[in-house]
UniProtKB/TrEMBL annotation, chain A:
Annotated protein name in UniProt: Peptide/nickel transport system substrate-binding protein
Superkingdom, natural source: Bacteria
Protein's organism: Sedimentitalea nanhaiensis
Classification of source organism: Bacteria, Pseudomonadati, Pseudomonadota, Alphaproteobacteria, Rhodobacterales
Pfam families: SBP_bac_5 (PF00496)
GO molecular function, one term: peptide transmembrane transporter activity
Automatic annotation (TrEMBL), chain B:
Chief location of this protein within or outside the cell: membrane
Residue spans crossing the bilayer: 9-27, 99-122, 134-157, 177-197, 237-261, 281-307
Residue ranges of domain ABC transmembrane type-1 in the record: 95-300
One annotated GO biological process: transmembrane transport
Descriptive protein name: Peptide/nickel transport system permease protein
GO cellular component: plasma membrane
Protein topology in the membrane: Multi-pass membrane protein
Lineage top rank: taxon: Bacteria
Cellular localisation: Cell membrane
Length: 536, 313
């Protein structure tokens, strides 16, 4: 780490060198990429929070997959697969017995034990909404020996494996028990996992650089890698994540071969890369993201279902997505609240959303509801590129339908503070905002926080919706996929009618890599196992 | 002189205290919630409240303020609310790139701008003067990121003489450092060359009309000696002031240039901390910036006496 004193010393050295004319241009080798054992990647944001359980930030989740492992993991078919452990389920579906596989070791050399798993799952269960539901019906979670974990429930919880295998927000990463005993409301301070990469704490600069080194003692599974499941075979020595706040600089750096991989490429800058034969542009995450509008169910006028329906009728997915993305290859009109390409995804009752704006219907609904012209405070973030356009397009559409719209611009931080306010608008409250989610984060009724209908305990917007809670409970109790799919259709129809939130469609974000980078597996989470890097 | 410096240093204490109070209150009055950034988008209000409690953000303002002042008195800048790392360490990591780029920029700027200003004044109302002033207007007018992109396109992408972006510490090899620092330094220098050249020209024009310059020329002193020894020295005070202010500005952060060239400097640290409402980092950065201004102003004031013997403290 550079100290203040060494910084000043360097500065004096530099001044002396410049004054004495010793400054020389770099030799050509400096411009070449690092060797083929290091992958340099520019990720979508800087890594600042190192605790993948306390936060739902994607970059921290990605960091989690680098250094930690998970008990079970979802594959490309959305099926839970063994990762650290195999499992057996009792006949009454109330006891899950996990057996840790051989060779699991933490980066400090200690073996992974059942006690570590129990402590990690308990901490995760305090943070994750799905985890909380499982712990609501947990009788005991114990480790009778070093290799075994027994999870006993008071009643069957059919989606248990789906919840603990989910790839996003928040996966139950396994940490040493001494780390996992940290309060769930406090960040951990020791970063030891048992995953395929070791976190290099010495080289870590928050928000700037993070370096991972191959964990030589990691034993991958034999199955081929598929999403977060399968063998995590590491073929490089180091992976360096770096942050580049300027999109054009990142594009130039990739073109010049200074970096190997760019996780997200701005669509308007794609032509620069597409003409470069040394660079491959692709979409490795075919599920992509959704953009949604969330009305505040507590305050007028959106405490009235008819007025929420009027807002939904006024909005047009196509125009909003086109404004956001530009190129139709990178967006998808979709009315499925669980995503269009997921196992539970269905578009029942969504014609009002996918068929374009219906201003006449919106006007009729407003009249029927007796809308009195109460202005809608629409919060518009100005500093998050992927969220700038939605409020502008929505405001215009809502005004056309007869809404009074008070669009208030603010930075994202002000928005996240204000959206937690349940007060009336005059006292800092709000009526609507837009945000984005990865599709796997909304792909079932337990993961999707926006279909939580528990009033004050629900996500911002606080719908009190006994019907959706009844359906979610039925989903938990459902015994097979067919029943779950049937309930998902009912939830979809109910949400379309009750307008818990407004699904505004799906969009994709292209990635780019040097052609020397090969064998990247398709996944919503960019993973660095399986990848090989050839000499250029 | 020593007593003067001591007095000035002591005078910084109330200044810094006022800055500290102001920054603390301003941050607490600004909307935003570090707990929301820490917990992410899916956190419920109850979870956020528990995290706020843990971070001490639910404590009364006075308690928070005195906790921070107590830390400062012990020389402790605190810990980042997000990364849980020492603020002093974060600042030290970012200070190196910023100081090095600032020094390089100032050296380039002074080396080019002072002769340009002197020559423009010497050749007043000729094409040389016109050329220098035209460059100066351009330097002021063209946004810094445009200059940065143009330099990257020419020297990094077309000619491939230097890398597009990044920063290496001089301890990793001077060539590695220089090849990455030269484009951002040249980019920043464009503004400072314009500023310093204009100031030098204006100051020199005033001095060149003085009687002692006419006397020196009448005595047959060589023109370069007249210009650089007699005139420039007497014109130095306003030039030094502008160089000092420029240096303080460079040290306190040049976020656009840092972003375009991907330099992990003070500017980006400050902006990132503000966007995330990372209070301890923002407070430290603003105190540091205030300290830098006070220190640089003191240095500039002291240096006046080196160039102008009439100034005594």
């Amino acid at each position: 780490m550079l100290t203040m004193r060494s910084a000043l010393k360097d500065a004096r050295g530099l001044a002396a060198a410049l004054l004495t004319g010793t400054a020389l241009l770099a030799p050509g080798s400096l411009l070449a990429q690092e060797d083929e054992t290091t992958i340099t990647a520019v990720m979508h944001s800087g890594l600042r929070v190192l605790d993948p359980v306390i936060t739902t930030a994607h970059i921290t989740r990605n960091h989690g997959y680098m250094i930690y492992d998970v008990l079970t993991a979802v594959d490309a078919d959305f099926k839970p697969q063994p990762q650290m452990a195999d499992w057996e389920i009792s006949e009454d579906n109330r006891t899950y017995t996990f057996t840790l596989r051989e060779g699991l070791k933490f980066h400090d050399g200690a073996p992974v034990t059942g006690a570590d798993v129990v402590a990690s799952l308990k901490r995760w269960g305090k943070r994750d909404s799905g985890g909380q539901l499982i712990f609501d019906v947990t009788a005991s979670l114990q480790s009778p020996d070093d290799k075994t974990v027994v999870w006993t429930l008071t009643e069957p919880f059919a989606p248990l494996l789906d919840v603990i295998s989910k790839q996003s927000a928040v996966p139950p990463f396994i940490m040493p028990a001494r780390v996992a005993e940290t309060s769930a409301d406090e960040t951990i301070t020791e970063y030891v996992g048992s995953g395929p990469f070791v976190f290099n704490e010495e080289e870590y600069e928050p928000g700037v650089n993070v370096t991972y080194e191959k964990f030589d003692d990691y034993v991958p599974r034999d199955e081929p890698a598929s999403w977060m499941a399968g063998g995590k075979v590491v073929n490089v020595d180091r992976v360096v994540w770096t942050t580049m706040p300027d999109a054009l600089t990142a594009i130039n750096a990739l073109s010049a071969g200074e970096i190997d991989y760019l996780e997200q490429v701005q669509i308007d800058l794609l032509p620069i890369l597409e003409s470069n034969p040394d660079v491959t542009v692709e979409t490795r995450d075919e599920l992509g993201y959704v953009t949604i509008g969330r009305p505040n169910h507590l305050l007028p006028p959106f405490d009235n279902k008819l007025i929420r329906q009027a807002a939904m009728a006024a909005l047009d997915q196509e125009s909003m997505l086109a404004t956001m993305q530009g190129d139709p290859a990178y967006y998808n009109v979709c009315g499925a609240i669980f995503g269009c390409a997921t196992p539970l995804g269905n578009e029942a009752g969504s014609e009002i959303l996918t068929g374009g704006a219906n201003i006449e219907k919106a006007k009729a609904l407003l009249e029927e509801a007796g809308y009195d012209g109460t202005p809608i405070v629409l919060m518009a973030p100005t500093d998050v590129t992927s969220l700038i356009n939605q409020p502008v397009v929505a405001a215009q559409a809502l005004r056309e339908a007869g809404f009074e719209v008070d669009m208030q611009s603010m930075d994202w931080q002000s928005l996240v503070q204000r959206r937690a306010q349940q007060n009336p608008v005059a006292e800092g409250g709000w009526n609507m905002f837009f945000t984005n989610w990865m599709v796997p984060e909304i792909s079932d009724p337990l993961i999707n926080v926006m279909v939580n209908g528990r009033g004050d305990d629900a996500w911002f917007g606080w719908p009190t919706d006994p019907r959706v809670e009844e359906l979610r409970a039925a989903f938990v109790a459902a015994k097979d996929d067919a029943s779950r799919n049937e309930i998902a259709v009912q939830i979809q129809e109910h949400v379309m009618d009750n307008v818990n939130y407004i699904m505004m469609g799906e969009y994709l974000i292209p990635q780019a890599r040097r052609t020397a980078i090969r064998n990247m597996i398709p996944s919503p989470v960019p993973v660095f196992w399986n990848i090989t890097k050839a000499a250029e | 002189m020593f007593v003067y410096i001591l007095k000035r240093v002591l005078a910084t204490i109330p200044v810094m205290l006022i800055v500290a109070i102001f920054v603390f209150l301003l941050l607490r009055l600004t909307p935003g919630d570090p707990a929301a950034i820490l917990a992410g988008d899916a956190a419920t209000p109850a979870q956020l409240d528990r995290i706020r409690e843990r971070l001490g953000l639910n404590d009364p303002l006075l308690t928070q303020f005195f906790t921070w002042m107590g830390q400062l008195a012990r020389g402790d800048l605190g810990v980042s609310l997000l990364s849980n790392t020492s603020v002093a360490g974060m600042v030290a990591d970012r200070l190196g790139p910023t100081i090095n780029i600032a020094l390089m920029t100032i050296v380039i700027s002074v080396a080019l701008a002072v002769p340009m200003g002197v020559i423009a004044a010497w050749r007043h109302r000729t094409w040389v003067d016109f050329l220098v002033m035209s460059f100066s207007v351009l330097g002021f007018s063209v946004p810094v990121f445009v200059i940065g992109y143009i330099l990257i396109q020419i020297f990094a992408i077309e000619l491939r003489w230097v890398p597009v972006q990044g920063y290496k510490d001089p301890s990793e090899g001077f060539g590695a450092f220089f090849s990455r620092a030269i484009l951002p330094s040249l980019t920043l220098a464009t503004i400072y060359i314009a500023l310093i050249a204009r100031m030098t020209r204006a100051s020199m024009l005033e001095v060149l009309g003085e009687d002692y310059i006419r006397t020196a020329r009448a005595k047959g002193v060589r023109e370069n000696v007249v210009l650089f020894r007699h005139a420039l020295r007497n014109a130095a005070v306003p030039i030094l002031t502008i160089i000092g202010t420029g240096f303080a500005l460079l040290i306190s952060g040049v976020v656009v240039t840092e972003s375009v060239f991907n330099i992990p400097g003070i500017g980006r640290l400050t902006v990132d901390a503000i966007l995330a409402r990372d209070y301890p980092v923002i407070q430290a950065m603003i105190l540091l910036t205030a300290g830098i201004y006070v220190f640089v102003n003191l240095l500039v004031d002291v240096s006046y006496s080196l160039f102008d013997p009439r100034i005594r403290y």
